[in-house]
Structures are given as C-alpha cells and as structure tokens.
Amino acid sequence: MWPDAKPIPELSNVDPHALPDATLHGGQPVVLRGVVSDWPIVRAARTSAKTAVDYLKQFDRRESPPVVATVGPPEIGGRFFYNDDLSGFNFRQEQVPLGVALDTLLKYESDAAPPAIYVASTTIDTWLPGFRNENDLGLRDRDPLASIWIGNRTRIAAHQDVPDNLACVVAGRRRVTLFPPDQLSNLYIGPLDYTPAGQAISLVDFAAPDEARFPRFAEARRHALTAELEPGDAVLIPSMWWHHMEGLETFNVLVNYWWRQTPAWMDTPMNALMLAMMTVRDLPADQRAIWEDVFRHYVFQPGDDTAGHIPEPARRVLAPLDETRARNLRARLLQRLNR
User: Fold this and answer.
1) pLDDT of 173-216, one tens digit each?
2) Which domain of life is it from (predicted)?
3) Has this prediction a pTM greater than 0.90?
4) 35-72 b/e (C-beta count within 10 Å ≥ 16 → b)
C-alpha cells in the first residue's frame, strides 16, 4: 500500500496441525506462508471462483438461516464506510441465502464496476456444517470461534478486536495493514457506539489519506506493517492490533479463528470503557485524578497493598475472580444500572 511500510515478519513450513504456542501467544503479528495450502477449499479456489463456490455449496444447508450480505454501490470503490456527515452508512444490508450471495458474486465477477458485496463474519459451524472436517487448523484447547468472510474487492477500515485472530486466505488475495495498539490517537477513530460493523474504525481513507484533516496519520504510517497474502497464507493478528483488510480480487474468501487468552466468563473490556465514560470521564479534573489513582490501585497495578490487609475469606471482589464471583458481580452491576 505504501512504499515505506515495513513487512510483517514471516514464518514458513509451519505444521498446520501443531501451531507453536510461542507464535500464537507471542503478542506480535506474523504471516504464516502456505500454512493452509493443502486445504481442499484452497485447491478449489486456485482452479477458479466457480470451483470454489461449488465446493462451498456442498456444505450449504437449505434449512440454514440467511446470511447478512453487506452491499454498496460501485462508486464507493469497495470501501464500506459512513456517509458524508457520519449520520449513516454508504451501504445497505440484506438477508439472503448463502447460495444466493455466492451466485451473485459469480454474476459480477467479470463486471468492470460491480457493486461491493461482503458476507462478513459468518459462523462456519452454523452455515457450513462439515466444512471444518476438511479445512481446519490445529489450535488444540483454544476452542476458537471459526468464521468465514466472502466478498469481492472490498476495503474494511482499520479496527481492533479483543480476541487474537488467525486469518487464513483461502480464495483470492488480501492486503493486510497492521498498526500497534499504541497508534490509537494517530488513527483518528470514529464513534465508539455507532459503527459500520460493531467495532470503532479509523476515519482515514488509506487509499487517499487527507493529510490536512488527519495530520497525525503520518506518524501512524511510520509504524505500519503490511503483507499481501496468497491463497494458503495466514496472518496472526494479536489482540487489539489495528488491522485494515483489503480484498484484491473479484472473489475473495477468508477463514478466521478468534480466541481469547482469558476465561470465557470475563466480559469484554469495552464494557468497562463505556461505563467509565458514563461515570468518570466528565467528572471535575480534580475528582478525575482521584479516580485515576483508584483505578491504578485496584485495576492496573494491584499488589500486596491492595488487599493483603484483608483476611482471604473476606476479600470477595478483591480476591482473584472466578466464574461464580464474576456472575455475582455482574448481577450486582445489572441491578445498579437498572435502578
């Protein structure tokens, strides 16, 4: 995308059935070249988009619910985004059978200016049961959520995800551009509670950055990592790394695995952020400084001085959380919020 962007580090000849923990938990992005190149869907896609569609349709069930297809007019150039004043979006969403979405993509494959079409984050085990029996990775006890993403030439704005993400290109080509989490202020993030697809996104158009409107983006670019992925390649995107995804062909399919390195009962930190905005952000400056110290003491730097003076059986929420304590705490919070 940019000549000055650094390449994402790469590994080759990685066993897809025994992905190394040091890589998956290393906290750094890495491209795994050819790691899923033996998958049947990859072999089918190398023949043609039609062959890949026919392969996917083997697993499509008529009784499955419709998928959500995101559709934008040709003039958006595949960039699913807001409208001009951020009061709405430049696309619409339709519920259609998966087979209809696949046939529509084939219909526009040779069109010079097709509508942008994207079937995003569709759970594989629900919509394509049996697919993972032939196309899967060895993630052992991580119990990931496996999703499939299908579309034509589309651009998904830079955003973050809380889970770790292993994204596998199985058809077409993708360009992925990553930024470390600390580039938050340089990426000009849009609204947190009104987003195109659930996650807050960068307002910068990576294909034509407006340097006057977004001057700090030049600093973000200094930290950018990028790679072009071929069918069979994968990229590990660690938790909270910003990622911009671009489909480069007329037919692109991505399979991704999400997992968290925390227990399933832990809520997303985004809930805490929203609550902090509601309860802390707009306090007078002196009170906000007090609460900053309170959060440091109890959340960000807890130590022996946090609860060591309380008998262990009496520490309650100050003790290490488990599923039962978390459930009780959640119930108390809901009761307070719903007062």
Assistant:
1) 999 999 999 999 999 999 999 999 999 999 999 999 999 999 99
2) Bacteria
3) yes
4) bbbebebbbbbeeebeebbebbeebbeeebeebbbbbb
Interatomic CA distance for residues 1 and 207, integer angstroms: 8
Q: Are residues 13 and 154 in the same domain?
A: yes
- Residue 155, domain CATH: 2.60.120.650
Other beta carbons within 10 Å of 312: 9
Q: Is residue 264 part of a domain?
A: no
Q: Tokens 């340097």 sit at which residue?
A: 211
Query: 160 and 34 in one domain?
Result: yes
pLDDT > 90? residue 5: no
Question: Residue 219's closest CA among 211, 230, 231, 207?
Answer: 211
Cβ neighbors of 330 (< 8 A, separation 6 or more) are 267
Q: Give 306-315 pLDDT, tens digit per residue.
A: 999 999 999 9
Residue 3: pLDDT band (50, 70, 90) is confident
Q: Are residues 254 and 273 in the same domain?
A: no
Under 8 Å between Cβ of 199 and 236: no
DSSP 5: P
Q: What is the pLDDT of residues 134-162, one digit of tens each?
A: 999 988 777 899 999 999 999 999 999 99
Distances (CA, A) of 322 to 13, 23, 100, 209: 39, 27, 45, 46
Residue 239 tokens, joined: 């938790």
242-247 sheet: strands from edge to edge: 6-7, 225-229, 174-179, 242-247, 155-159, 79-80
Domain contains 222:
yes
- What's the domain count of the chain? 2
Tokens 């709405």 correspond to 88
Fill in the amino acid letter for 288: R
What is the predicted pLDDT for the residue at 28?
Answer: 96
For residues 258 and 147, the answer to whether their CB atoms sit within 8 Å is yes
Q: For residue 200, which of 232, 164, 162, 238 has the smallest C-alpha distance?
A: 162
